[in-house]
Amino acid sequence: MTPTQKKIITLLLAECIIVRYSRRPCRLRTPEGHPLTTFNARTFNTIQPLLRRTKDYNYVIDKRAVQKLNGNTWVKKEYLLKKQYDQKISGAHKM
User: How far apart are CA 17 and CA 19, in angstroms?
Assistant: First the structure.
């Protein structure tokens, strides 16, 4: 994976979304709608198997597709680290 793809997937795991317009580069946005970065369609096409389309025609990470990946992949490791971190945070708030 390229550094750009890694950056995009890391941000998608942090609840960001991809907005794709026809004949324009794709845009990565925060859940509030603030733009983070733009990237070309070729990069989008390489990570598309890990994405799912929402009702608003935006793209988010498909957690089922990530869970089905082999444990040695970078994406799966990043997902598991984020999941463990979220569990620690939620457990700390319950105390």
Answer: 7
